[in-house]
Amino acid sequence: MKGKIRNARLVGITALSLMGGAAQAQTPAKGNVIVWMHADNAKYFKTVADNFMKANPEAKVTIREYPNEAYKTAIQVGVASNQPPDVFFNWAGDDSFKFARSNQVLDLTPYAQSAGWGKTLGKGALNAFSQDGKLWGAPFSQESKFFFYNKALLAKQGLKVPTSFSQLIGSCKTLKAKGITPISFGNSERWPGVHYLTILNQKVVGEKQTGLDYRLQASADKLFTDAGYVRAFQMLKDMQDAGCFNNAVNSVSPQIAEATFYSGQAAMNFCGTWCINTMNTNGFKDKYGIFPFPRVEGGKGDQNYVIAGPIGLQISAKSQNKPAAAAFVAFAVSRSSQIALLADEKRIPVDAAAATTVKVEPIQAEAIADLGKASGTALWLDTVLDNTIAEAYLNGIQEVLNGTKTPQQVVGVIRQAAINAKQKLGR
């Protein structure tokens, strides 16, 4: 039934679609378009591609799916090759800007203007893909991260939703004493751990200083020297020492951690808005609530920030079929596609008008409202940093959790990576 509903929403939308008054394309798209997609979004985009081809019979779209851990490596190699994808998924931040610096992707500003999606998509999401006055990606979803919690389990233990880090630690200790895993955590793919450091850095160090360090704008002798960076790592270690996590987190996959939560074997799971559909389709609907990462006492950052960031599509500068690639991107971010994304996939669209046309579930409404109330967003750490610094973080988190390095040692490695990157990039 969902497939039929989605088809009804998308079929008939032309390549440049009627996006809130934008002019409809006069000529259907033609030719082949190769799209590389992160596995979490592949199912949805295969449906988008099917409907695009129905609206454009002379076009063929091929979706190539890559697993999460392998995707970033694949696009580094693929985009630089002589046969890159025409369109590919990417995260906002340096992950997208590095392709712009090397002239490997198109400036989408004229396409956004001509197709109309530059006016219908949220300014914040567009700005996240903008640099030097140019637009390097088309955002299609806003993602955020929350603690998902088992409502019945917390209530049975007499626990309330923690609003501070110390309360979170206290809840962990209470649950652990009862033989309950407080937070299911799987860091085998490394990125879940970096999400903890993303929000801890913002709350402890503060968005002003992290902005200077992340962009390599601080002087070399000051880069990543704020004591808060070590404290942020130590707080993650404090969570582990308090028994917040399951054993061997670096050997557990994110998917297993999610399953541990929705099967009732853990009280909480730090998960993204993309997990709402996962929880619901695995029989956990209405059994869980969400809350943002709590405030950190003594932190220098704005405690009303949330961890969030848009994801989007980029077009290769070497694409052999740029018109069709641009038409597909326009279709993928059209209002009809945005409505289907919210209604069928339970994902948060970046077209605010699309959200008003769908009766969302209470948990979705809560996530959207929380994002609306936030005073700012901390973008995923591994997507905003230069790749070498991101790798130092990704590896360092595993080392701290394994007990093979101290927070001080890891921050020292990160600082040296930042100094090297600053020198290499001439900043």
From TrEMBL:
SUPFAM superfamilies: Periplasmic binding protein-like II (SSF53850)
Keywords tagged on the record: Signal, Transport
Family: Belongs to the bacterial solute-binding protein 1 family.
Protein name: ABC transporter substrate-binding protein
PANTHER family cross-referenced by the UniProt entry: MALTOSE-BINDING PERIPLASMIC PROTEIN (PTHR30061), MALTOSE_MALTODEXTRIN-BINDING PERIPLASMIC PROTEIN (PTHR30061:SF50)
Signal sequence extent: 1-25
Organism expressing this protein natively: Deinococcus oregonensis
Pfam family of the protein (one): SBP_bac_1
